[in-house]
User: Fold these one by one.
Assistant:
Number 1:
Amino acid sequence: MAEFWKRYPAIEAELSRVDAIVHDMLAGAGQSFSGPLRDQYQGGKRLRPGMMVLAAHVAAGDPVPNRLFRLAAAVELLHMASLIHDDIVDDAHVRRGRATLHRCYGTRDAVLMGDYLFGQAFGVMSELADTHRATPFARAAMRMCATEIGESEDRSLSIRNYFRRILGKTALLFSLSMSLGASEAGADRITEERLRRIGYNVGMAFQIVDDVLDYDGAQDNLGKNVGIDLRAGVITLPFIYAARNEAKLNRVAGRQSWSDSELVQVIRMVHRAGGVDRARDEAERFTSRARREIARLPVTPWREMLRDVSERLARRCA
């Protein structure tokens, strides 16, 4: 999905400005760290900065404020930092089709790289954003960290807990990106709130689909191993739904030691018990909510682009 925005040349062109800003920031990490961080960034989808820029256009048309691109870069750096730390906690081997940073450079250096990105993100936000914008950014960072802590402790089969977790893990940053984009473009309160809700629903659907693909995807086109959540003992929605129909799954919930054959058996069990299909339906429910909110926006080419983006993200489960 690194080429996701190629279909939208106007957004792709503006994301090149975000790319330049990010690369300048990463250069400050020093010779040892800047190269690995640039490689990590190059493999990314840039969904959050893209959604921020798109939200600004939906709210105000053309052009968007120049400082928006630095704020978009800050959001992407926050996201990158969270992925690096997430990979360390999960001891993940692959990210975006490449070996994870801590596997290549060691945990110490990977932690330092993540910390550098957090610092850069907050530096930009404190420089450019007023309290109205900076406070939600800080709260989002805290919620993301709290979610990571909670994920390592939560082995329950609670759907409510799962939704809370993916809100902090993914949907919150999608929502923040879109509300920041709208706010920076001078949107009225109703439009900003509507775009925030769209970001929330798109983000929730996106993470559910990502969790479905952990049971249903192929490593060569996703850049991650199928079953990586299971290996880490992380309980996601397909497993939760399947466990309601298959008692054997309750006994292995949260287990972190698997042979390859055991993992394949559990994945097949989750499919047979209907967990994958029900999770796909849940992703569609959130996408439908986003679709309804988008339909309430003024009719413009930017609105239609936003609709197409949300639909494409949801179709990743196909």
Number 2:
Amino acid sequence: MHVTYPERHFGPRPFIAAMRDELAARPYTRIGVEPLAPTIGAEIRGVDLREPLDDETFAEIERAHHDYKVIVFRDQDLSTQQHLAFAHRFGELEEHPFLPPKDGHDEVVQFAKNEEVVGVENVWHSDVSWRECPALGAVLRAREVPKVGGDTLFADMIAAYEGLDDAMKKRLEGKIAIHDFTHSFGLAMPPDKLAEQQKKFPAVEHPIVRTHPATGRKILYVNSIFTSHIKDMERSESDALLQYLYRQASIPEYQFRLHWEKNTLAFWDNRSVQHYAANDYWPQQRVMERVAIVGDRPH
């Protein structure tokens, strides 16, 4: 079956206004919350993450994380232990099987990019969607940033789902996509190592539209790095549909762009956003440290 998909959309997306107004009607009393885009991204103020968080403040931070999908804290000069402690408040911490950990800290991934180690994260993706239970979220802290460039872009995949027309939403009901690390991390592995890792982490099935476990929102959940094809669909049709769905992350109305400063910390909801690390700073150095939190199985 040959299906064509629209390439353009003109004019406003009314659901954005509704989502923005809904968020504005939910005040915070323990923390300052400054929205950075209509539906995604907010700067959190009045919090020092070096200090223990009382339950009421933590609850508002968690709500802001659900509301805005990416929350940003400036001037957080944390130790590694403090970074880990903040992330651990949200759940069990993840160890990445393919990325080398920071010395002495198996749950911290350090991304140190420079003239010799080039950043390759400049493609829209959701972290570890090839896991049976992909990460709930990730807490990323800037240790060293270039003078210009090195921003991270985030895309609201709840807004992306809402932006689909009713016919597409109906078409996606019950559809399952296959997620696999083979064509990303697997590319650098020799055949014997790849076979070993494929046994540990076989391809997994996730719904194309998942439901957020805390908010009940519907999320468009496919990404161009780790999603390989749609189950029980002819390959050319699957490829065409996935390419259309991948493009939804590139719509500016769904995006927020984070300009990093030293000791900026961002916590994104990996279930409901995709991200893209702009590789425009080479050969300058950029050093980031990430702690990820184990999530649930998409449904």
Number 3:
Amino acid sequence: MDKRFSWVFLVASGAFFFFIVGLTGYRIEDTRRHHAASSHESATALAARVHSLADTTGSIQSPLFANAMRDVFDAEPRLLLMCVRSERDGILYLLTRSRSYLAEPSTVTPDWRGTPTYQVNRGSEILVTAGVGSDMPGVTLDALYVVMGREDLYPVLRDDLYFFLAFLLVVGVTILIVMSIEDQELSPARPAAQGPILSGGQDRGGWRPAPEPVLRPPGPVPAAAGTVAVPTEAPTRVTSPSAAPPTLSSPRSGLAWAEYLDPRLETEVERASSSDGEVSLARIRIDEPFADARFPLAYAEIAGILAQTFPLHDLLFEAGDDGYSVILPEADVDSAVRMLDELRVKVSAREIEGRIRTLSAGVSSRGGRLIESPLLKEEAQVALAKAEREGGNQVVGFRADAARFRQKMVVPTG
């Protein structure tokens, strides 16, 4: 994937992160404000209940009052502490879920006077004070409530998880779509079946049609004066260097014609340069050429192994009667060497036409350089020559020396 998509993905991820954080903070604060308002209403109702029970039972400190207030306290799960106090008589009634909520006094005694001090978590708890009634001057109710507990956070975090999973799903589908589009862009444009096929030559009039292949009929070749005619036993296909074949693939091997290599390689190198990606080119040759070119069964069988090893068949090309060329997009020289070594092992592990055949290969890659396709092709050929010179049946990767490359010189290494 190109850098433009990467930047879009980063921006979308950042926007999603800030959206989730903002939404979570807003929902938590909204829940806290709602529970705080409910707590004030509950404390007012609770103070009225204290006044009513005091009138009914006759005293705030009576056992009937204590039992009735216990029932009220148990019915309020958010109520942590309830204290009825008087400026004159101190703490008249205290009920709490934990003694830690009362900081002062540490121990409630009948002779204690003053205003109690409570341990309140300002982020999740609220203390509400309400008067019990005008006919009970100086009597006050303190109620400590939970305004943001774990049970309030669970729905918020659950919805955040759903948003996150939905974001991952959208990102995954988008990546698959982008990869599918890039694969389609990498596939070569199929030339039309009708009309002339254009060659690589160019003149003042623009592109010129490629000449048709010239077939030499079987039989003796006419001899020039003073020479001896050499008989031939099969038709031989002769084409000019710039001529393009009339079909996309060769019937001999099923691979693309060699003439299609240069324009496709140029396209792949331009694509890799525009996205700062990689591309490699491999030149492969059978170590011992076939003695009889009329029956290229071994050549076709090795081409079949090549097609099984590399799935992008439109990047596989013939290269003469005993060689092949392979374009490897998104592969550096090390990855390409490993893949070609697997191909070499596959070929040498089976008998082809009653004997073991071996391959030599040379690989060159863009390697982050601003390189043109002819130089990449030349480097792969140099690496192939090195592999053959050192005994064959091996893969050699071409690695450019950065200092010499700036001087347009390269050094192949095994």
